[in-house]
């Protein structure tokens, strides 16, 4: 007799200024307080905010909104999420992402329904999570942005 299994994957809803992103827990290494990034060359792309220090490493900080052609927002609840880089590049192990508050845990199961809304090139899909629409970011494309711009350590 086959047993019906339900997925017990847990995800995180990351609050941004103009949208929510959804990621599996394993993509997130840590949530840290906002810190002013180190100075950087003015010739960098607008979405690149500089380097932040995490566990004695310098991690590139970026604004997802700005990478999607929206304005950069650093609100009073701003935090930084450290993401595990998934592309296997030796020069890029982590990415720091600016968020606007504390991520919320949510269950990811086969009941998530896709929503037909406009997506930026860095978003793979949109899903309905409870009352909210959350965008699924393309983490490999984020990594490629940093690598292509020469902004890895």
UniProtKB/TrEMBL annotation:
UniProt cross-references to SUPFAM superfamilies, sorted A to Z: CheW-like
Gene Ontology BP terms: chemotaxis; signal transduction
Protein name: Chemosensory pili system protein ChpC
Matches recorded under InterPro entries: CheW-like_dom_sf, CheW-lke_dom
Domain CheW-like: 6-143
Organism name: Pseudomonas jessenii
């Amino acid at each position: 007799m086959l047993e019906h299994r339900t997925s017990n994957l847990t995800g995180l809803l990351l609050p941004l200024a103009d949208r929510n992103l959804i990621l599996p827990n394993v993509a997130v290494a840590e949530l840290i307080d906002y810190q002013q990034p180190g100075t950087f060359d003015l010739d960098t792309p607008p979405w690149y905010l500089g380097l932040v220090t995490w566990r004695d490493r310098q991690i590139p900080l970026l604004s997802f909104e700005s990478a999607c052609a929206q304005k950069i927002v650093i609100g009073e609840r701003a935090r930084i999420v450290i993401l595990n880089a998934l592309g296997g590049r030796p020069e890029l192990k982590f990415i720091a992402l600016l968020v606007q508050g504390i991520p919320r845990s949510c269950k990811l199961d086969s009941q998530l329904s896709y929503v037909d809304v406009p997506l930026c090139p860095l978003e793979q899909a949109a899903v309905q999570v409870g009352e909210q629409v959350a965008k699924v970011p393309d983490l490999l494309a984020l990594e490629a942005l940093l690598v292509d711009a020469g902004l890895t350590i």
